[in-house]
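Job type: complex structure
Entries:
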Amino acid sequence: MIEVLSSAALATVQDLGRTGSLRWGVGTSGAMDNLALAAGNLLLGNALGAAAIEVPVFPFKVRFGEDCAFALTGADCAARLDDQPLLPWWVHQARAGQVLTLGLPQGGAQRGSRAMLCLAGGVDVPEVLGSRSTQLRGAFGGHEGRALRRGDVLRAAGAGAACKTGFGLVPPALALPLQQGGVPAVRVLPAAEYMGFEPASRAAFWAGEWKITSQSDRYGYRLEGEALRPIAPMELRSHGIVPGVIQVPHSGQPIIQMRDAQPSGGYPKFGTVIEADMWRLGQAPIGSRVRFIETNWEEAVAALDEVRAWLDKVARMVELHRGAPAARR
Amino acid sequence: MIAQRPSLSLLGTTALLFEAPGEMNLNSQQRIWALAHEAQAWPEIREAVPGMNNLMLTFLRPPRGLGALEALEARLRDAWDAAVALPREGRVVELPVVYGGAGGPHMADVVAHTGLSIEQIVELHSAPLYPVYALGSHPGYCYLGGMDARIATPRRKVPVLSIPGGAVSIGGAQTGVSASAGPSGWNTIGSTSMSFFDPAQNPPAALQPGDMIRFRVEGIVR
Amino acid sequence: MQDVALQASQFAAWLADTDIGLFELRTPHGSLRLGRQGDDIVVLPACDAEEAAAVEPAVVRAPSVGVFLHGHPLAGAPLARIGEHVPAGQTVGLLQIGPLFLPVVTAEAGEIAAMCVAHGLPVGYGTPLVELHPL
């Protein structure tokens, strides 16, 4: 078990998301960086979608109540186990009583914004509607349907079990880079109301750098840039939406719907960030800039294949290593 | 402009959005329910999610290649053309509402936009029997059809950060009741109390498409 | 040593035409180590037991085939510095195999004497990577 020592952390228990309940108004939730979650689980030999703790605010501290293997992926946050510095994107062994401290995200241009703390066997909370992700609106799932607080105690389903530790992964930000004009970029498929915007606005969207303002969180990223103007006012019927949908309200400043977004909406949709690139947005820090690359259906599906292939390669290499006898020195 | 043919569009590689043509009405919604029932069984589709005279299909596996995507879209258009309205005789649920006052902070904006008095707005809002068209927005939230066009008020320019569960609101030509606290771009005109969602129940939502809601006037606060 | 040095440029020219990453030649007259850095062939520092001081140095060897890194790509700073005193079990470098990083770990305490392979070069199983003077 681990005890949360930090207060006001905004950390939540997340897995890969809650699917199949959109028909009741339940959105998917889930990790903002699904690649970091999956990779951390693979390092531990967990099921790919085992629940973990997503940490968006630092510093963050937990104490291990028992021996437990854990993996830290996502943002490199100069982590320490007691006073020992830890390598990022790595699987470690904690002993009972040790304190894990996540510091501030490091790295300048490569800096991420969310760390994933994965535990041996996954975080052991009840499944609700098929998932262990936290549904904040409605307060269910994850740990008591809310963000973690000081004093919360969480169980790791595989604590105490023997686990090979002391190795790591090349972060996907390095293995699968994507930039436009020196700025991190994500690919976007135009959506239904795309042609309803002024040509100059459409051009500005692809050409511009968009700042992720401080009013950005798991519900949505509010962007700052050139105002996007519709050719004529658009009033839409409420319809289903998914994370990645870029809505343009009256202000003209786009909002990218993120993992905790409402599963339906009525604002005009300019485009949708492709599923394969959502993890990149999940790591983009407040105040950073992002660019959008126009893509098409086949490229977007190929991008999903690329991510899956990376995860498959990681899974194969990790299993080879976990199964290998100890190397002679 | 009201469309004559259905409109199909992509939501990234995650989902396909189907928008029915014509005026928004219950008959179209019943055909959407029928379409959802059929598409839910297709191998590419994870979930068929009705909206207001529209349907979102989330992919289990995105169709590989443009040809496969176009074939799916064609299959969907054909299924719509063949769809017969699925009438659902659901329950009637009555909700007591206190209109205006602290629970209806945007009543004045609806008055200003429509040019009607509070009493007229309350009468027009509480008169109909509202069919539940779809659930969405947040757990247990019901999208209702049948609101009188005379009290339609556009969504707010700046959404409100948090309105409580039980808030009765108008957004464009639609009305609905919040099932839990959260942000909203709609105009809140009153409040009610009811449990709309319990994840421990099966199904977890208290209401479903085909049920009907009536708003009973409990009081009007000016 | 003279003979070997004269032949270095010949070996370098030959090596440039192959995809061999590391070439080591030991003769009674001296040794030569060549490696690749980008497109260039460079002469690497010698890790030669004959040049050691009175105490036999310890060598940390590659636990596998892979690419040797002096530091983590996210960090920038090297994991070990020449002259640094490190305990047994210290990670003094990384070995990259595809998407995986394995730690290069000291078996005994010692003082870092030399990095035997430049950062970013491919190595074979057992290749000497880091030389330590035992404390």
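Summary: Chain A is about 15% helix and 25% strand. Residues 2-172 of chain A form one domain.
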